[in-house]
Amino acid sequence: MAKIELENIAHSYRANPASEDDFALKRVHTVWEDGGAYALLGSSGCGKTTMLNIISGLLTPSQGRILFDGKDVTALPPEKRNIAQVFQFPVLYDTMTVFDNLAFPLRNRKVEEGEVRSRVHEIAEILDLSPYLNKRASGLAADAKQKISLGRGLVRKDVAAILFDEPLTVIDPHLKWQLRRKLKEIHKQFKLTLIYVTHDQTEAMTFADKIVIMYDGALLQIGAPDELFEDPAHTFVGYFIGSPGMNLLPCTVDGGDAVLGCGRIPLDPAVATRAGSGAFQIGIRPLYLELSDSEKPGAVAGRVASVENEGSNRIVTVLAGDCRLKARVPEGRHIPADSCWVVFPPQRTKLFRDQYLVK
Amino acid sequence: MSKRHFILIFYLVLLLLPIYWMLNMSLRTNADIMRTFELFPSSMTLENYAKIFADPSWYSGYINTMIYVSINTVISLVTALPAAYAFSRFRFIGDKHVFFWLLTNRMAPPAVFLLPFFQLYSTFNLIDTHIAVALAHCLFNVPLAVWILEGFMSGVPREIDETAFIDGYSFPRFFLAVFIPLIRAGIGVTAFFCFMFSWVELLLARTLTTTVAKPIAATMTRTVSASGLDWGLLAAAGILTIVPGALVIWFVRNHLAKGFALGRV
Amino acid sequence: MDKWENNRAWFLILPVFIIVAFSAIVPLMTVVNYSVQDILGPGQRVFVGAEWFREMLSNSRLHDALIKQLIFSGLVLLIEIPLGIAIALTMPAKGWTASACLVLLALPLLIPWNVIGTIWIIFTRPDIGLMGAFINKAGIPFDHTAHPLDAWITVMLMEVWHWTPLVVLLAYAGLRSIPDAYYQAAKIDGASRWAVFRFIQLPKMRGVLTIAVLLRFMDSFLIYAEPFVLTGGGPGNATTFLSIYLVKLSTAMDLGPAAAFSIIYFLIVLLFCWLFYQALQAVGTGDKS
Asked: Hey, CA dihedral for A110, A114, A115, A117, is it positive or negative?
């Protein structure tokens, strides 16, 4: 159990990084609170795994320090860090039984055999692995194998944090839910710091208290799922979270209005005064766009191009001038047949300057 | 330099030492060799090599060997590819038995089969032809090729085949256009092993040939003359037998590394 | 993974079947045929039943050669397999150095077998050989043409020199197929270098090592050309291995006994390969109860 602090961490896989682009991880400075369940979310190649490996000690960062509970561990090898890691594919010692697999990290640390036995039985009980203890690990199903990988982390009493690198990739969909629930139970029971890498936002939302969004080697935002949804700090967060993602449209700011290719939209006056100068975009969640048959003040004229049924919601694509908008309309609500007016509620309309949210 | 590197380099040096020594001998005349012992030849000469290249009965040996090795590699690959596919994808009557039987052909003592082989190939009038040696070498190379290729093919998921057939590929087109490119590295490794075992085999090759298709390794026995053994000439001929193999491995080295990285041999 | 059931797959293996059968079945039948007959001259042969087999099985020179052969193959496996694994562990994982190592390692494998013998004659002769001359200069008399022990050492050295690279290549292939995550997990679990080898590398190499053991056993048990060139089976009968004895028999025109002997020989190889295969398959499988 530990608080993990990353102090100005940067990492490059090249020996002599010349430019910003050579860095897989660019100046990350953040704190992971003790006992938090974090999801590290981002598309492939954004530096998620690099970050994870730096925390576990498999990689030593090119720059910066990493502290566990205030103690500098930057130079410590993984086995000295009290970190457990679960990989994308189950990593097992094929020739050993489940029991020996679970006992392996303890025996390597010369823990007394009676203690090993009791710890292994305890953890096997929690993970529902007891019936398999004498079975050879290689013969088990993928989900049981991932539980063993997790168990190898949990058996160690001193373990400070468990890192997961997309651990559910190879698991059947119906078992994913079970396994994720198990993870939550374990998190509650052990109060461990969990860091969970994924590119699946549903997985991140259901697993974590806090979601960390990474993009191109940098942390864009850390927050609870609803924060990320309501106030994305960066256009990437808006686009990446939610399905479909935020509508993002380039605009200019003129007085209290945003001027788009398809018309003028009133902004929240507090935001408009702080706009400053730069390249602007407005962003609005499909959920908050309102469609209407009749003209309304501040609304933009358009026509309905297509409607996709998603069960309880319908996704409506609206073309207005050169803007293409998506709106999410709950079932039972009326959808205009062809020409329509689109309302942008000012409280829900976000303004981004140079990709970043104007607050 | 770490201990690991030291061990590896030490091993490689030991590995090259006997070959170096033969190279050393090949660059000296026989009289020189018998007179003094030298770690590095003080008076180097290409006389031995010149002798070999001037005599058609010498260099035709190389050409013969190249011809039958190439024929053998091609036959082995062409026949083994579909067979390996069958073993990796299908269950059929006698599959395990045939596979095992193929492998047992590597276990037969070749020395015993010389006479029956000679009789068999005489019956078909194949003695002293390149194709005879190539066919004979198929006995151990084809099973080996099937074995190696089967390993590589089993590593390719069957969904790829299924998708291709759903997309309307005929079997031959799928096999040539989709499947073979997927196991290119495996084919490289297999070709290398076929080349290798055919190139180094001598007993069968010598038995089945007399003059026209005689392999270089058999020609080498001629260095024993009335005046005793000509060590320099023997060494030069030996060095020349290493060259084609070295060239082949140099050209396929990247394939080989890739094939090995797939963990199937 | 279940395979598709389809007997038409036979068409795919037909070319292989025909080409191997052509070279395998007729010669084998011929050998079987010889093994039960006494050939007195052209066209004159008598059926003798299992006579030759009985004679061969009680032949003390054959026993002698067989024991020698078993010791030889046993030593070959004991030296080459661990040495090959050890060298494979020292090899770089990628880059031009890895390619260079592969090229150098494969070199001995690509030398015709009789040339291997020639190389080692040149290398070990007391008068002109690098190794032979050095050992003799160091005050230890060494001559593989005169002393049985020296002959054995030389043949053994040659065999190890020639074939260990094959084991290295196979073991290296096995090592390269292990995903990085295994090494990372082991690091986190605090495994020692030895534990990584014992519980990750060795189990993952089982498949390729099975192939290595089988190939090395077969080929060392059938060894002929290299020791024949190097020692001619001598001095005396010190290095007369099974194949060399067999060829001596058959060139002495004792075709019947030679044929019977080769069938026994073939069956021995088959038996050992099967035993090795079963043993290696059983290692590291099955549950602990």
From this structure: positive
